[in-house]
Amino acid sequence: MISTLKISFPIVGMHCASCAKLIERGISRIPGVNSAMVNYASEIATVDVEDGVDDQDLAQAVYDVGYKAVFADTDRSEGKSAEEQKDEIKKEELKKLKTKVVVSGTLSAIVMVGSFVMFPNWVLLVLAIPVQFWAGKEFYLATWSGLKNRAASMDTLIAIGTTAAFGYSIYSVIFGGPTYFDTSTVIITLILLGRLLEAKAKSHTSDAIKKLLGLAAKSARVIRSGREIDIPIEDVILGDKIRVRPGEKIPVDGIILEGESAIDESMVTGESVPVDKTVGANVIGATMSLHTLFQ
């Protein structure tokens, strides 16, 4: 019988739900992959694979469709977790995106004003080129990757639309006629601005979630074979009896078997008044026991 394994890893570079579908399709082509699901909101891929499929195969499949998979045990990880590497990559991308938004925004504003005050067409062309092919480079790369995989995304629409406006404007510069450099540059700038705002919002949300997770207990006092031992919270299994002393955080969700206490659940409910809990009551992990010992 072939054993299977479920693997989850972060992915960097997605901009829409179509990106997630494209990555799923690319991963599913790998021999030995039974299923692949990519969550665009969390930027996490979950893959059900058979023995013999390694991280390098998955990373290459994601790279082939134009994105980046992050694993902890790579040569460049330097002992960092996949999430830490992802955060570093996202911060670097955010800095580059800020630069692109500032430069393309400035040039787009000049092009737009120049279109009204009748700047020479060749001047507008020179100003529009960096926005179209430097700031908008990622749209072309994503479009090319999509075409190779017979798929289209939002980037495809942006690349086609702005290229049409830019190409017709070049024709007008040569043979005469109206130009639309302001249209192509403003569209690219606004899309990049939207992605910058989205990236900042996701970054703030991620930081808030990490702070919330940081409130959880790191270890649990478990009773096994009649002895009380401290173990990492990851090693707690279903059916373990956990002893919680006054002033300690409850390690995991559970049911009170012995004793009673007042529980501070403010970090979950926002209610500052402690809740009295007795035998049979449910308790929530990361909340705090205030009074007596229980298990």
Automatic annotation (TrEMBL):
Keywords: ATP-binding, Membrane, Metal-binding, Nucleotide-binding, Translocase, Transmembrane, Transmembrane helix. Its main location: membrane. Residues 5-70 form the HMA domain. CDD domains: HMA. Pfam families: E1-E2_ATPase (PF00122), HMA (PF00403). It is found in: Endomembrane system. The chain crosses the membrane at residues 101-119, 156-174. One of its GO terms (cellular component) is membrane. It is a multi-pass membrane protein. GO terms for biological process: copper ion homeostasis. Gene3D superfamilies: 3.30.70.100, Calcium-transporting ATPase, cytoplasmic transduction domain A. One of its GO terms (molecular function) is copper ion binding. NCBIfam families: ATPase_P-type (TIGR01494). Belongs to the cation transport ATPase (P-type) (TC 3.A.3) family. Type IB subfamily. This is Heavy metal translocating P-type ATPase. It comes from Candidatus Woesebacteria bacterium GW2011_GWA2_40_7. The lineage of its organism: Bacteria, Candidatus Woeseibacteriota.
